[in-house]
Design brief:
38% of the residues lie in helices and 18% in strands. By secondary structure, the protein is α/β, with parallel strands linked by helices. The chain folds into 2 domains: 2-168 and 220-248, 3-Layer(aba) Sandwich (Rossmann fold); 172-219 and 251-318, UDP-galactose 4-epimerase, domain 1 (Alpha-Beta Complex), CATH 3.90.25. It starts with a strand and ends with a helix.
Length: 320
Amino acid sequence: MAVLVVGGAGYIGSHAARALRRARYNVIIYDNLSTGFRRLAEGFELVEGNIGDPSKLHHVLSRVDAIMHFAALCYVGESVTDPRKYFRNNVTDALTLLNAAVDAGIRHIVFSSTCAVYGVPVKVPITEENPREPINPYGATKLAFENALEAYGRAYGLRSARLRYFNAAGADDSGEIGELHDPETHLIPLALQAATASGSELQIFGDDYPTPDGTCLRDYIHVNDLADAHVRALQHLEQGGDSLALNLGTGQGNSVLEVIHAAEKATGQPVRRKIGPRRPGDPPALVADPSKAKQVLGWTAARDLDNIVSTAWNFMRANR
């Protein structure tokens, strides 16, 4: 079976492509390389193209049986200052991809969604029944595509897995692929950089939250655990399973200070940091309830925070 990994030259998509290959799928990567990296697609057939290009999509979709869609813009702050960019790529162009898939007879799609569709949760840990009320354009665009998948399922028989994950982190054990963002906004690579002589000081946004140590709690999940869940979700659809939405996380929250301590353990160096005011829109805690993923897919996250941080550090050292 052939799978088109759209956005497969990006962080999570590149790990999913390798997980698919280990599961004996034929993989084609489709990426415009605007935020992805050619090196992350090495060893795979790479088709360079935009998801809003129906002609380019037509030629490649005729060769595959299913899609994994990772090709979304994902900076929350940028989505607030430039929502046009986000609605164009994450909704308008993504619908071009979806229409082309339906026209090509593809009936299985696994979508990289996000816990941002929930907005500020009514309770933590967050279940799939939490109201979907995003508080920023990024989350709104992801929800819009989720809604499209649900509508296309009812109308055209398209079956989808909408995977809402929490804080993806870590790197492949090989050290060959990992997190490459420009600019980098994620806590773990920023903390690791702040432990090096050339890295910038880490900015902590608030230490007065109603949490055990006053800093925000987040559910950090290893990128290879995420990749495994994507393969299992595709297999669920192939075996006749119904469309579904699942939270992907560990079910455990780690604070900013706990991440810093893990970074110091991995590097053997202090993380230079300063504490500033809270960042608007940051909830005190975002933690998944992943029990549905375990029930339906037999999936649980296998790696803890120390493993996440140590693999990220190995990748960073190998790619300085």
